[in-house]
Design a protein that fits this description.
The chain has 159 residues and is an alpha/beta fold. It is 26% helix and 22% strand.
């Protein structure tokens, strides 16, 4: 599908995706965005990015879901300690954040590094999750951002 055929996302009035919440987990401050209500969706960003990568998508998902978009440890406004930055450690951190938030089941959607963390989360905690991973190819004729992928997905699922 050409980029010209992708429609811009409509504005969702009243949605606030710019607010960051913070929780301290195992001594490290974790930043995250949370919106909506319903079944939980966890959005994981790529390496060197942060939760703001999902700001165009969050209001749309928040109409039907509880959306959690964290800044992974070492990214964004979360702490940047000398710590374990493996996908397994990130998966553990997501489990701990979800536990603190009282969430027992989640659909995990990851972009790039976040996709690897999503897969590891499903492997480590199979009763907690279902997973969708999105990593763009190294060379792509399409823009490779989560909001572009969301628009392509939505347009392909409409009758």
């Amino acid at each position: 599908m050409s980029e010209d055929r992708i429609r811009p996302l409509r504005t969702v009035h009243g949605a606030q995706t710019h607010l960051l919440l913070f929780r301290t987990i195992h001594g490290y401050r974790r930043a995250f965005r949370m919106a909506g209500s319903g079944p939980a969706i966890l959005l994981l960003h790529g390496i060197g990015d942060n939760s703001s990568t999902w700001t165009e998508v969050i209001p749309h998902l928040a109409e039907q879901y509880t959306v959690i978009a964290p800044d992974l440890l070492g990214h964004g406004r979360s702490d940047k300690p000398r710590a374990d930055y493996s996908v397994a450690a990130y998966a553990n951190g997501m489990r701990d954040l979800l536990s603190i938030l009282g969430i027992e089941h989640v659909t995990v959607i990851g972009h790039s590094l976040g996709g690897g963390v999503a897969m590891q989360f499903a492997y480590q905690f199979p009763t907690w999750s279902s997973v969708s991973s999105w990593s763009p190819p190294a060379v792509s004729p399409h823009r490779s951002t989560p909001s572009c992928a969301w628009r392509r997905f939505r347009s392909s699922t409409r009758p």
